[in-house]
Design a protein that fits this description.
With about 190 residues, this protein is an alpha/beta fold. The protein has a single domain, classed as Lumazine/riboflavin synthase (Rossmann fold, 3-Layer(aba) Sandwich). The protein is built from 6 helices and 4 strands, in the order βαβαβαβααα. The protein has a 4-stranded parallel beta sheet with strand order 2-1-3-4, sandwiched between helices.
């Protein structure tokens, strides 16, 4: 992960509904990540009542739960939080790639932003630095969630307006097909 992060936008989180899917594997560090995310969201005006956290066994299970949460339509944004630490095999790479792809697919399918907050690291020291240390990815994930929820709401409004305008334009043909002769049959 890059350390060249964008500046956080000041977004009022009031009324934004957020689902958090968090792995139980590497519980202490993932829990610290969850706490950092919730603290940042609360500081940005998101009500604790608008944040719902679901726990899953590990990072590999996050995409399924995130897709199901997105499918409910109850959340403006979902944040998947997990930690994958490299081991003696390439299992960490497989899980990291698979979960990233699955989260992106679920986000596109259900049209709900899903923030990939699954951290992949080589060792515990890197994990601690990114979660409880200087880098503090939880804050970044929370800010990304707020920004994407706001952007998604704005774009959805534009889509609805465009759909309404198209529907109205499609109705214009009705006026052209009705001539004066046929008007006498229409109820007044």
């Amino acid at each position: 992960m890059s350390k060249d992060k964008p500046e956080s936008l000041a977004i009022d989180g009031e009324g934004i509904s957020i689902g958090i899917i968090a792995a139980r594997y590497n519980f202490l560090l993932v829990n610290a990540l969850v706490e950092s995310v919730i603290q940042t969201l609360s500081a940005s005006g998101v009500s604790v009542d608008d944040i719902e956290t679901f726990r899953v066994p590990g990072s590999n299970e996050i995409p399924h739960a995130a897709a199901m949460a997105a499918k409910t339509g109850e959340f403006d944004v979902i944040i998947g939080l997990g930690l994958i630490i490299e081991g003696d095999t390439n299992h960490d790479e497989i899980i990291g790639h698979a979960t990233a792809n699955a989260l992106l697919q679920a986000s596109m399918q259900f049209e709900v932003p899903i923030i990939n907050g699954i951290i992949t690291v080589r060792n515990s020291e890197q994990a601690e630095d990114r979660i409880t240390g200087e880098i503090e990815r939880g804050t970044e994930f929370a800010h990304a969630a707020l920004e994407m929820a706001q952007l998604s709401k704005e774009l959805m409004k534009r889509i609805i307006v465009a759909d309404i305008e198209t529907a109205i334009e499609d109705m214009d043909w009705m006026d052209d097909d009705i001539d004066d002769e046929d008007d006498k049959d229409w109820p007044k």
